[in-house]
């Protein structure tokens, strides 16, 4: 028996290093060749000399095969991913409201009454205490407002995480659940670079705008949320969509705002007001001629603000060679 064989049986490689199960060999102990994994036979072998280092390895993949994405979704038996928008993160079971069995057939009246009792008890057990009932109500409110505002899923998840942090930091006493939930959604939208005006949140919320503003400031300060000042350019897409302006006008509005930002003319002014004024000015430059009233209603900005910012943007644009 050679020294190499003795080393292998002793659990050591040719250079004397120990071999463990948790750290598979990356090179062959016999010839120092490359070790590859053979999925078909469940073995780890050396490409050079063919030495089998491991056999009968466990296949942790599914036992079925799928060739299309729809087929994969149909055969998959795992549950939905965890989410911050449910008080239990979606880990609990839910009894379907449909009174049907596994074969899709309607159940008898006796079983239907039993299912209803099971649903009642299941609902009670899912929210065991006041903490979970608070989360369930608030996260349901966040989902409702997010659907009304048509915000993206990442923003919704972030809002759920912010509200959970507020609950863990004991920031809720003395404040309404609806107000804190709205503030969390508003903060999440700003963090993701898709800000909405407070008036838009107040329209779908059950609390007044001033209470949302106070709750947002409190949550932002206590949780130390890293939220940068809103950029006027971030409001342009939503205003342009609401006003149904052309792509040319949208590009012109971006140019006006970019020029103003380059010289710092936007500092201290409302980002939404600047975006609305830029679109109003852009539509006049492209002969679309939107009225101040139309822009004001779509952007929730006063006509006085639009007139003032409109003049400022055009002056800055002309002074910096915008019409050259």
SS summary, helix count: 13
Strand adjacency order, main sheet: 1-2-3
Order of helices and strands: HEEEHHHHHHHHHHHH
CATH domain topology of the domain at 83-97 and 110-228: Cyclin A, domain 1
- Please state roughly what percent of the residues sit in beta strands, choosing from under 5%, 5-15%, 15-25%, 25-35%, 35-45% or over 45%: under 5%
Question: Main β-sheet: number of strands, strand sense, barrel status?
Answer: 3 strands, antiparallel
Name the CATH superfamily classification of the domain at 83-97 and 110-228. Cyclin-like
Given the C-alpha coordinates, what overall shape results? Answer: extended
Low-confidence blocks of residues: 1-23
What does this structure look like?
- Belongs to the TFIIB family.
- Sequence repeats lie at residues 140-223, 234-315.
- Helix 10 (247-262) packs across helix 11 (271-285).
- The protein has a three-stranded antiparallel beta sheet with strand order 1-2-3, with no helix packed on it.
- With 324 residues, it is mainly alpha-helical.
- Helix content is 53%, strand content 3%.
- Among the domains are: 83-97 and 110-228, Cyclin-like (Cyclin A, domain 1), CATH 1.10.472; 232-320, Cyclin-like (Cyclin A, domain 1, Orthogonal Bundle), CATH 1.10.472.10.
């Amino acid at each position: 028996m050679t020294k190499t064989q003795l080393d292998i049986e002793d659990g050591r490689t040719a250079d004397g290093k120990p071999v463990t199960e948790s750290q598979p060999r990356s090179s062959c102990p016999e010839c120092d060749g490359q070790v590859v994994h053979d999925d078909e036979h469940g073995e780890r072998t050396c490409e050079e000399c063919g030495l089998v280092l491991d056999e009968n390895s466990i296949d942790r993949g599914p036992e079925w095969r799928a060739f299309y994405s729809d087929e994969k979704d149909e055969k998959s038996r795992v549950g939905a991913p965890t989410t911050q928008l449910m008080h239990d993160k979606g880990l609990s079971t839910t009894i379907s409201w449909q009174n049907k069995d596994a074969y899709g057939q309607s159940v008898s009246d006796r079983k239907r009454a039993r299912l209803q009792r099971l649903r009642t008890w299941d609902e009670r057990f899912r929210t065991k205490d006041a903490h979970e009932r608070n989360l369930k109500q608030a996260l349901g409110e966040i989902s409702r407002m997010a659907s009304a505002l048509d915000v993206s899923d990442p923003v919704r998840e972030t809002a759920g995480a912010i509200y959970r942090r507020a609950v863990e930091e004991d920031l809720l006493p003395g404040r309404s659940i609806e107000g804190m939930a709205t503030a969390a959604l508003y903060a999440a939208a700003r963090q993701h670079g898709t800000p909405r005006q407070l008036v838009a949140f107040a329209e779908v919320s059950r609390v007044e705008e001033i209470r949302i503003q106070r709750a947002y400031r409190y949550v932002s300060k206590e949780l130390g949320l890293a939220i940068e000042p809103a950029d006027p350019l971030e409001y342009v897409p939503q205003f342009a969509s609401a006003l149904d302006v052309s792509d040319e006008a949208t590009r012109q509005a971006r140019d006006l705002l970019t020029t103003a930002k380059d010289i710092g003319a936007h500092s201290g002014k409302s980002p939404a007001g600047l975006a609305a004024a830029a679109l109003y000015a852009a539509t006049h430059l492209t002969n679309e001629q939107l009225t101040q009233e139309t822009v004001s209603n779509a952007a929730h900005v006063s006509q006085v603000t639009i007139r003032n910012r409109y003049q400022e943007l055009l002056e800055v644009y002309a002074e910096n060679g915008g019409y050259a």
